[in-house]
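Risk register update: the risk of archive-format incompatibility is retired. Evidence:
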Amino acid sequence: MIEYKNVSFSYDAQPPVVEDISFVIHKGETIGLIGANGAGKTTIMKLMLGLLSGEGQITIDGLPVTKQNLSQIRQKIGFVLQDSDNQMFMPTVYEDMIFGPRNYGMTKEEAEKRVDEVLKQLGLQNLKHRYNHKISSGEKRMAAIATILAMQPEVILMDEPSTALDPVNRRTVIHTIQSLSQTKLIASHDLDLILDTCERVILLSQGKIVADGDCETILRDKKLLEENRMELPLCLQSRHC
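Archived output:
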């Protein structure tokens, strides 16, 4: 579904943010993308959408990420941004949620049905007609996730999806991720969330892949994590999982 071949990216004359990255993600996989601040997690996602342009080759469902293919590729991918304020641009949650499906050709009736289904799935019916500037940061984060799910993308990218969430909404996001059949790439410092949702982890350090494999095996490797400026998930520190 997703393939990176020798991908590198740097800003101007700066050292590479991502250097000679290669990996494959198969259809239906849920992958955790982890690493300390500045490891290159968000950059990898932006390269996939053509928001940044680097060296090497990236393909999505057989389509090379090129300027000519960006429209098709972006219809396949939904991106939950780290900062919800950069994602929610319409006055109300409903208007944001219906914008994508309508823009991609869904009838108004179909789009409205999809909006209601997603809101019910996430327990957010009360937010439907709320103004984005009048809801809390946690509610806005949940609304941003709902906006992407309403588009029914084949691939879902999530950049720090649990940021600003209270425990109840965080658990809802975890259950939602677990229930989705789409291919998912989740970048997060919340290693407990990664442990709960992902079967595989890609560990980045200074723009390079230092480990790629079974989620639990990597997240239980205290030495490996500490060498790359990370710590064991909290539940493993307390031996509750």
